[in-house]
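#struct-queue
[09:14] JT: dropping the first one here, sequence first, then the C-alpha cells:
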Amino acid sequence: MLQDVKSYLRRCFAIKNLGEAAYILGIKIYRDRSRRLIELKVSCYTDAGYLMDAEDLKSQTGYVFVLNGGVVPIIKEPINIYCDNTEAITITNESRITKGARHFRAKVHYLREVIEYDVIKLEKVHTDDNLADPFTKALTFPKHSEHTRNIGMLPASNLM
C-alpha cells in the first residue's frame, strides 16, 4: 500500500526520497525503536476570562496545547494542564463541590475521573507564565510577544 501511495505521488508531483523524517510540521520526531514508539510529550495551558462580555455575561476560555516530539497512537504520560486559578484547582482536587459550583458539576466529576486515571495532571502555573492568556485578555505588547514566542508562533514577517 505504501508503494502504491508513493507511485501515485510520483505521478502527480516531483518528489524525492529524503530518508527518514526527523521533523513533521516543525515538530521534532523522537523514536524509541526498542519499544516501537514515536514518543510525544503534551502540555496544556488553560485560562478563563470571567464575564468578559457585559451583554450576555459569558466567560471566555482559552487553551494552548504544546507538543514536543512526534505523533503516537497512545500517549503513555499524563497531559499536564497548567492553570493559574487556585480555586479551580482546589475544586477539582476536593471531593466536595462548593455551593456556587453546581453549574459545572458534571465537568468537575469528569475532570476528577481523568485525573484519577492518570490521563491528565492539573498543575498550578503563575498567571504571568500562563500561555493561554493571549486568548482571554488583552496583554501588553512585550507580554503578548513573550507568550506567542513560547507557544512557538512566529510573526508573519518571519515567514516572508
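[09:21] JT: and here's the second one, same format:
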Amino acid sequence: MQTLLLLGLVGFLAQLVDGSLGMAYGVTSTTLLLLIGTNPAAASATVHLAEIGTTLASGVSHWRLGNVDWKVVRRIALPGAIGAFAGATFLSSLSTEAAQPIMSGILLALGVYVLVRFTAWGTPRGRLGQPLRRRFLTPLGLVAGFVDSTGGGGWGPVGTPALLASGRIEPRKVVGSIDTSEFIIAVSASVGFLIGLGSAGVNLAWAAVLLIGGVIAAPIAAWIVRHFPPRVLGSAVGGLIVLTNVRTLIRSELVVVPSAAQTAAYTVIALVWAGCVAWSLRAHFAERRLAAETPAAADAADAPDAPPAPAEARD
C-alpha cells in the first residue's frame, strides 16, 4: 500500500511538471521511480503504459482546440515509434546492473538540459515560418523516440525545443503536435517492453496509479502554469533531476567515490541548483517589469499630439 501511495505521488508530481512546462513527465516520473528502487526497464515500461492514457487525453484536447499540425504528427510519429520500439527492446535486453547507470546517465543529460534551458533562456519560444521537411523530422523522431524509451522520457525535452528552434511552426502547435504524436510513441515503447520483459515484467497496477495521480494533478497544473513562473519551475525541476541521478551514478558499481568526494559533489550541485533558481527568479521579475513598462511606453507613443496653442498664446 505504501508503494502505491508513493507511485500515486510520483504521477501527481510528474504531471504537475509536465502540465506546467509542456515536457518532462517521463523524465521526472522515471527519475522518481528509480529513486524508490524500481528496476530501470520496469520503470520505463510503467511510465509508458501510464502515458498511453495521459497522452491520449492530451492529444484529444489539443485536437479540439486546433493546436495540432497533422503533417508534423504524420512525419514525426512513425520514425519516433520505430526509435521507441528499438530503445525499449535494447533496454529490456540489459541487466539491471548495466541498465541503471545507462538510464541515469541519459536522465542526467536531460536534467542538465532542462536546468540550462530554463535558467539561461527561460520558456522556449518560436515563430511561424515555412513547413517542416521530412528530412528534418525523420531523424528527430528516431533520436527522440530512442532516448524516450531508454531514458524513460525525452520525447518532449528532445522534440519540443528542436521544433521551436526551427522557427517554422507556431509554439502552441509545437506543444500540441508533440503531445499528440507521443501517444504513438507510448504505445510503441509499451509493445517493445512487453515483448522484451513479458507481462510479468510490468506492473499494471503501478501504471494505473501513476495515471490516476496524473489525472488528479492535471487541473492543478493548469492553475500553476497561470500563477507560477515556468522559468523558475524548470530550473527547480532540472536541478532535482540532476541531483537524484548523480546520486544514482555515484552509488552504482561503475565508479568508487569516497564519501568526502560524494559530500563535496552534492554540495556543489546544491549550490549551483540554488544559484540557478535564484537567477531564474531574478530574470522572471525583470521580465515582469519590462512587460509592465512596455505597454505604458507604447500608450505614450500612440497618444495623439497635443493641440497647437492658440495664436494669442504664441504671441
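[09:30] RK: nice, looked through the second one.
[09:31] RK: The first helix runs from residue 2 to 21.
[09:31] JT: good to know. Confidence is low (pLDDT under 50) at residues 300-309, 311-315.
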